[in-house]
Design brief:
Chain lengths: 379, 393
């Protein structure tokens, strides 16, 4: 397949850009933050996104979806990176849809996917327990009792945890932390007795929660996928999520570059534009080159998800790692080349670094993915 | 079956029948490349056979028009040819400044007579070319060149000194930049001319490199007669052509950042050399260095692929050759630094005990240092990106 965005995908990107410029410019990020929004995103905006069909892009047609594929979805996510728009897209329309599609029974798919596609159901993945992403080290327990399951444990940094209708909970049902076998997934209504959700304020203002499960009883139908064998679909879904996070980081990296380049052509010091100083030109040129590499690897990873090829896990880790590295460069250079004004809250550039770091860390940062890539490659 | 599918099958069959077995093995040293030309000593009969057969078919220059001996392939067909060659690990049949540099310039700017005269022998590997651009006082600032070409009516008389002329002592012809109007503004008085290295007054003198061999020369031009019909394009209008040629050179050099088809990955070389314990490389820091390099190399390979596919689809910024040159050569330098560490002291053998190698690694590693200098330095590429792509004045 040619490594280019086709016409349809390009149109989707442009329509996303137009939509976000109108309904979710950066000023909305500031407004959300200043209002101390409990939700961390705007439900009205989410409704409009669903009307645009964005929640349905990865949902198969038989369940009321558009089945438009990852390259298409990636174009939208990249644009939301440019405008730093918070929404349930990653948790619900990407992770949730992928997990249900991979692991769910026919009746679970029929029940859940259509609602997601319409924007009527939101999900959150309750996975991490410590400060570092490490899915195989899941400790939280689920035990079988009288035809039910009882969940006990604590999940941290659950994105959209305080807003989602349902939680997909990663639990250990056998073996020890570190084992890939013995992990099971549950689809649980957030209102179930014994669930306590505490919203944490993170640097990006998105909603993130600490969720404790104390003797939470759920019925058999809550099990998502095979008992003890949840790691496989989970791992694939995390690959998908990481590629889309890489798309978001690509948007952030590009926008912070574009804003800075523009500033270099406006700001004068020493009687001339700062963009005329070679020390800054070379930094901008090598920064731009890195972003070109990022665009290529992200597109490659998206295409490989659509093709379902065996290289997807490696490509997902390469893409996430590379984007983590370059978005860090981008957001740091952006502030530095703005000088003092880059440090002010009044100026937008600071929002980019604040969203970038949590998105980098979510589901594994550079070290996690570089190491995972090495492991996949046999070293 | 689509046309491309049947092209693939035909190509596969043809390569199967025509590529000699020994040409399906990786080159052992950089000297194993086939350069052709009047002075070239073939390493084996197979090497000559492979060059001749591919040359005959025009597949040494796959996209050139058939009327000039080329393969007449579309970009899509060319991609298939490359894939099929990689599949059987076929060596490149011919390394050639003619194909990489002067050929594309002649195709775009040359007269019909020049194309007819020079292109077919390039395709067949009969004539080997060298590049007379740089001078002692004109490197990065190439337009500052001072070698003169004085108009003598029916010919030009060339005098001056070129330097860093790669393979100047082995080449048959030179494409050369001369100042033909000393009064015009820097870039305006330059011409691109062609002459036979046997012309009286052309004297290439080899220069030894830090890598031990002498692939380049200083070339003295002493009353050299250049025929007027050997000026490419118009007289004094050579700068545009010279720059066009450089974009091709840059793409070619930038390709060094791509690990050749069939060659081992850095990761597998590290595993061979250092070993693993429970699936992990026995050197934590090198594992990190290797992984970081492979991540960057994968992203770079996709970028070269994307640039190519965008060009095919008529999209893209076009001016990416400077970026590919910059990134690809820096990446290749990093690769060899890591390879040295991975291989350890063996890789620093220069000569003497040749049990493991013949000093190939040490010499090749040193040679890579030139990648970010030749064809325009990394700093010059960054200047080009800043100016032409980012619009920073
Ligand atoms: C936290 C903080 C506290 C401060 N406290 C004080 C204070 O108490 N009192 C006070 O007077 N000031 C203070 N400053 C101001 C500080 O000294 C200036 O911000 C600093 O000198 C840079 O100037 P600028 O912000 O105008 O950036 P600019 O000069 O506009 O620089 C923008 C970018 O261009 C680069 N640049 C500029 N000129 C060149 C050049 N010739 N070559 C290469 N690159 C160049 C800069 O390095 C920078 O990356 C403070 C700043 C900060 C961030
Ligand atoms: C292995 C090898 C093979 C070569 N083969 C050929 C050949 O076949 N034919 C041919 O004509 N030439 C050839 N060259 C020459 C090559 O093109 C020049 O070496 C190159 O263009 C740099 O010129 P220079 O050596 O004069 O360095 P200089 O131009 O003197 O540069 C010295 C340093 O200053 C930096 N610099 C210069 N100008 C700027 C600027 N404006 N901004 C920032 N930094 C700058 C450079 O990047 C470099 O780091 C070859 C060189 C090498 C190393």
């Amino acid at each position: 397949m040619a490594l280019v965005v086709n016409e349809e995908q390009q149109m989707l990107k442009e329509s996303a850009r137009g939509f976000l410029a109108e309904h979710a410019p950066i000023s909305e990020v500031r407004a959300q933050r200043d209002s101390g929004s409990e939700l961390g995103y705007s439900p009205a905006l989410w409704g409009k996104m669903a009307d645009m069909g964005w929640a349905a892009i990865l949902v198969p047609e038989q369940f009321g979806g558009l089945a438009f594929g990852h390259v298409g979805m990636g174009q939208i996510i990249e644009e939301t990176g440019r405008t730093l728009t918070a929404s349930p897209l990653i948790s619900t329309a990407i992770l949730g849809v992928t997990l249900i599609n991979l692991a769910g029974s026919d009746s679970q798919k029929a029940e859940l996917l259509g609602k997601i596609a319409n924007g009527d159901l939101t999900l959150a993945l309750a996975i991490d327990e410590g400060t570092q992403h490490s899915p195989a080290n899941t400790k939280m327990s689920a035990s079988k009792q009288d035809g039910e399951y009882v969940l006990n444990g604590t999940k941290r940094y659950v994105i959209d945890g305080s807003s989602a209708d349902n939680l997909i909970v990663v639990t250990r049902t056998s073996g020890n932390p570190g084992d890939l076998k013995g992990i099971s997934l549950f689809n649980v209504n957030s209102d179930t007795n014994g669930i306590n959700i505490e919203r944490t304020n993170m640097v990006d203002g998105h909603n993130s929660s600490i969720i404790t499960f104390t003797d939470v009883h759920v019925d058999e139908n809550s099990l998502l996928g095979e008992f003890d064998r949840g790691f496989r679909p989970l791992s694939t879904a995390l690959d998908v999520a990481n590629v889309h996070l890489a798309c978001e980081l690509l948007g952030i990296a590009q926008e912070s570059f574009d804003i800075t380049l523009k500033y270099m052509k406006e700001r004068k010091q020493f009687g001339t534009l700062i963009g005329s100083f070679q020390a800054l030109q070379h930094r901008a040129a090598s920064w731009w080159s890195e972003i070109e590499l990022c665009k290529s690897i992200v597109l490659k990873a998206l295409q490989s998800l659509d093709e379902g090829d065996a290289k997807s896990p490696a490509l997902a880790s390469i893409a996430k790692a590379k984007l983590c590295e370059i978005v860090e460069l981008s957001t740091n250079e952006a502030i530095q080349l703005h000088g003092g004004i880059g440090m002010t809250d009044e100026y937008d550039i600071g929002f980019f670094i604040k969203r970038a770091r949590p998105a980098q860390m979510l589901y594994g940062g550079y070290s996690y993915h570089a190491d995972r890539y090495a492991l996949i490659s046999g070293y | 079956m689509s046309n491309l599918d049947s092209f693939r099958l035909e190509t596969r069959d043809w390569l199967e029948d025509n590529c000699p077995e020994t040409m399906r093995k990786p080159m052992k040293t950089a000297d194993d490349g086939c350069w052709g030309g009047r002075n070239f000593t073939f390493k084996s009969e197979d090497q000559k056979l492979w060059m001749d057969r591919m040359g005959e078919k025009g597949w040494t220059a796959p996209e050139w028009p058939t009327e000039y001996g080329g393969g007449g392939l579309s970009k899509a067909q060319h991609k298939i040819l490359k894939e099929e060659m990689a599949r059987i690990k076929a060596r490149s049949p011919l390394e050639s400044f003619g194909i990489w540099m002067i050929g594309p310039a002649l195709l775009k700017f040359g007269s019909e007579a020049l194309k007819q005269q020079h292109l077919p022998p390039i395709v067949r590997g009969e004539i080997r070319w060298c590049q007379g651009y740089s001078e002692p006082n004109a490197g990065s600032d190439l337009a500052g060149l001072q070698s003169k070409g004085v108009d003598m009516g029916d010919h030009l008389l060339a005098n001056g000194q070129k330097v860093w002329t790669s393979y100047g002592d082995k080449a048959d012809w030179m494409f050369c930049l001369l100042r033909t109007d000393p009064d015009a503004k820097k870039q305006m008085g330059i011409s691109l001319v062609l002459f036979d290295m046997k012309t009286p007054g052309v004297k290439p003198k080899p220069i030894k490199l830090i890598s031990g061999s002498s692939p380049f020369c200083e070339t003295f031009l002493d009353d050299v007669r250049v025929e007027k019909d050997q000026i490419v394009g118009e007289i004094n209008q050579g700068w545009t052509i010279a720059k066009y040629l450089l974009t091709h050179e840059r793409e070619m050099i930038g390709g060094m950042g791509l690990t050749g088809a069939g060659s081992k990955t850095l990761g597998s070389l590290a595993i061979d050399s250092l070993g693993t314990t429970f699936g992990r490389l026995n050197d934590l820091f090198l594992r990190t260095e290797v992984a970081k390099w492979e991540i960057d190399a994968a992203a770079f390979a996709c970028t070269a692929e994307r640039a190519n596919d965008e060009a095919k689809a008529g999209q893209g910024v076009g001016a990416t050759s400077a970026m590919l040159k910059y990134y690809g050569t820096e990446l290749n330098k990093r690769r060899f630094e890591t390879l040295l560490k991975v291989g350890g002291s063996d890789e620093l053998i220069w000569d003497g005990d040749l049990s493991k190698n013949d000093g190939w690694m040490a010499k090749t590693w040193l040679r890579t240092k030139g990648n970010s200098i030749e064809g325009g330095t990394s700093e010059v590429q960054l200047n080009i990106i800043a100016k032409n792509i980012l619009g920073l004045g």
